[in-house]
C-alpha cells in the first residue's frame, strides 16, 4: 500500500476502484448478452 495521506488515497483510489467495478459489471453484462445472442443464433441455425 502506498503511504499517502488518507485524503489523497480516498480521492484517488476510491473513484478508480468504483470505475473498475462498474467497468467489470458492464463487461460481464455484455458477455452474458453476447452469449445469449450466440445461443439464440445457434438454435436458429440448428433448426434449419
Automatic annotation (TrEMBL):
**Identification of the protein by name:** Urocortin-3
Q: How does it assemble?
A: Binds with high affinity to CRF receptors 2-alpha and 2-beta.
- Superkingdom of this entry's organism? Eukaryota
Q: What does this protein do?
A: Suppresses food intake, delays gastric emptying and decreases heat-induced edema. Might represent an endogenous ligand for maintaining homeostasis after stress.
A Gene Ontology molecular function term of the record: corticotropin-releasing hormone receptor 2 binding
Please state every residue range assigned to the domain named Corticotropin-releasing factor.
Answer: 9-45
Family note: Belongs to the sauvagine/corticotropin-releasing factor/urotensin I family.
Q: What is the lineage of its organism?
A: Eukaryota, Metazoa, Chordata, Craniata, Vertebrata
Q: Does the keyword Acyltransferase apply?
A: no
Provide the alphabetized UniProt keywords: Hormone, Secreted, Signal
Major place of residence? secreted
Q: GO CC terms on record?
A: extracellular space
**Matching InterPro entries:** CRF, Urocortin_II/III
User: An example of a Gene Ontology BP annotation on this entry?
Assistant: hormone-mediated signaling pathway
Q: Which organism is it from?
A: Pteropus alecto (Black flying fox)
List locations, semicolon-separated.
Answer: Secreted
Amino acid at each position: 500500500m502506498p503511504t499517502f495521506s488518507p485524503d489523497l488515497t480516498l480521492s484517488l483510489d476510491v473513484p478508480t476502484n468504483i470505475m473498475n467495478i462498474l467497468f467489470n459489471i458492464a463487461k460481464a453484462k455484455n458477455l452474458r448478452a453476447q452469449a445469449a445472442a450466440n445461443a439464440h443464433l445457434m438454435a436458429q441455425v440448428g433448426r434449419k
